[in-house]
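Subject: Sanity check before I submit

Could someone independently write out the structure tokens for this chain? I want to compare against mine line by line before I put it in a report. The sequence has 186 residues.
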Amino acid sequence: MKNIIFLLLALFSTCVNAQTKKPSTAKPSKSEIDILYDKYKDTKNINLLTPLGDLYGNVTIKYNSSKKPASIKINGISANKAMIASFISNTIIMKINQGYKPTDDTFLWGYNSYAELIKEGSYVDSCFKSKQNYQLLMRKENMYFRVNARCCEKNEEGYMSDNYTWEIETGDTKRHGGKNTTNFEF
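---
Independent answer below. Compare away.
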């Protein structure tokens, strides 16, 4: 009888120990900028597939003073405006699905940001195809996503080209300052 009681106690004790929560030893998840960095750190040029053809881009990684990635930019030139619009539209949809929200901020040239079109679900195809310039800034917490597309850059001889330039950039505003960042109080 004592053996049966001892066996039941040992079995009960094992079941209780199996149900207790063990402390988590999992590492904290990587930041979004670090995940992108891991993907693009060894990439200088990229071939982006669109429904209208291949779009070629250059990858640039900006580091902060602590030598950590602060932003990743992909830019390029193409004469195919519709291909650029398609690529940027798909990228904006991807960023919306990741939780980014369009802002009404303008930057660079001070043109409209087209955020109202994004909020209505129109994306780039509806405006960049009919206009020469497009810019947009989206945010998610301390992360930002920036789009810049425009027409007709001057080449080295001073002539205007028929090519369109485009760039997309994802960055972490907390990372930009690096070790020299201080909290500003006013």
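---
OP: Matches mine. For the report I'm noting this point. Residues 43-180 form one domain.
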